[in-house]
Amino acid sequence: xxxxxxxxxxxxxxxxxxxxxxxxxxxxxxxxxxxxxxxxxxxxxxxxxxxxxxxxxxxxxxxxxxxxxxxxxxxxxxxxxxxxxxxxxxxxxxxxxxxxxxxxxxxxxxxxxxxxxxxxxxxxxxxxxxxxxxxxxxxxxxxxxxxxxxxxxxxxxxxxxxxxxxxxxxxxxxxxxxxxxxxxxxxxxxxxxxxxxxxxxxxxxxxxxxxxxxxxxxxxxxxxxxxxxxxxxxxxxxxxxxxxxxxxxxxxxxxxxxxxxxxxxxxxxxxxxxxxxxxxxxxxxxxxxxxxxxxxxxxxxxxxxxxxxxxxxxxxxxxxxxxxxxxxxxxxxxxxxxxxxxxxxxxxxxxxxxxxxxxxxxxxxxxxxxxxxxxxxxxxxxxxxxxxxxxxxxxxxxxxxxxxxxxxxxxxxxxxxxxxxxxxxxxxxxxxxxxxxxxxxxxxxxxxxxxxxxxxxxxxxxxxxxxxxxxxxxxxxxxxxxxxxxxxxxxxxxxxxxxxxxxxxxxxxxxxxxxxxxxxxxxxxxxxxxxxxxxxxxxxxxxxxxxxxxxxxxxxxxxxxxxxxxxxxxxxxxxxxxxxxxxxxxxxxxxxxxxxxxxxxxxxxxx
Length: 607
Hints:
The protein is an alpha+beta fold. The strands form nine sheets. The chain has a six-stranded antiparallel beta sheet with strand order 1-6-2-3-4-5. Strands 8, 10, 11, 13, 14 and 15 form a six-stranded mixed beta sheet that branches. Strands 17, 19, 20, 22, 23 and 24 form a six-stranded mixed beta sheet that branches.
């Protein structure tokens, strides 16, 4: 046992002697610790990696392991953290173990040099295979290498060891490695973010700076055009202040992200500290709902952090008071049939306001009394039939069209106006109605009538002659373009009084003069079909008592006196009655002229 103690003591004394000779010979740690938050930031970066890592290291002279916060042998950690603060972690990837740190540097493009080639920024490794200690070169000349190193000094406490300057080397240099330092560029992707678009008077305003490769930021804040803040921000920090500190108004801010290569400005951002909430619109999705619907009421708030809806039912007062989103929905069946009004109270930390009210109705089935109309009552085959319904609180309708004698010809879902070519329905008389409905129920409307047929064109009439005795057949010949269902003949006397009406379907019109008696008459024929009715102009005819043709003076004898009277009439020296005119037209051609005189003279001569 004594021999072992003596041997251990001998090893310990040898280690102490070596530490005294070389100033530091600590055993490198294998873990990696980063304690840059405890480093002094009183240094400037130039953008040169070799200069900047030395500046960072120099700023830490005298700091102990305890002050920096390391809890392992920390010489390699110190070099790694100096590289990190110099923005050179890509050239010197961090490790707390010297051999691994050396390999990381060479893997990143670094290379070995000798002490006669050493220069500022090189990394020196000491001891067996470079595993014992590592420092940063701050100067070199003629083979003398000057360094800064952490975890330096005598003693066993890594917490008491410190960052020291070694103008000359007292340790055995194993390797000198020159890292492949990267050039420093100005910060990129520089922007300033805000925690909200707007703030009320009770909010905290928080601004977040960002910039790649930035060492620090400078932030400026303006309110209503006047600068209120201008200060430095560290990386990964924020600017926070109460909205009430500067009050209501319009704010504008930007940052400058800086490093050793220079600064980059962000775009400016705007935000507001607002007063009480407002709104731009409040609406209801429908003016009415049936019991199967969902009522939806919306508000468009301005700078609101919340809203409360109030719904009142006429005659019942308040039925809903509820915190809600900007759109509030409720089943119509939950509210029930009735008339309602609703509004929102919108608010934020600065105050609030009540919106205007909107109204809506909840119904059961569509309102009774829907009105059905058509654009015409009579259509030609070239027309389009249009039938419309006006129904309150209806969500849909089905039209039914029936044709007289054929029953149903159309059953179809449709809008409030149904259109169909008349030719598709065809000639006939029709009735139509709608079944109107919503989600609760429905009913059938009243019916309307309409007709479709060919138009009747060019109505005309002719007669077999114009003068008749009291026992003759009057034949009237009607004509018209188009299909006719009924022919109606109306006889008027010479004073316009209706005497007789005759109606048939075949257009054959024959009247015995016995039905009329003597007199002068006018006949009119009216043509009708399902949709149209057209009448002819009047045609005149005369019925006289029985006399002999040519006996114009009605004395029972045809002689020269009748010829003389006829000649006087033709020469317009004498007037005839209607009966005389009928007797004077001896040849019955409808014209009284010299031919009738000649025929009568011949009759007298032959007699």
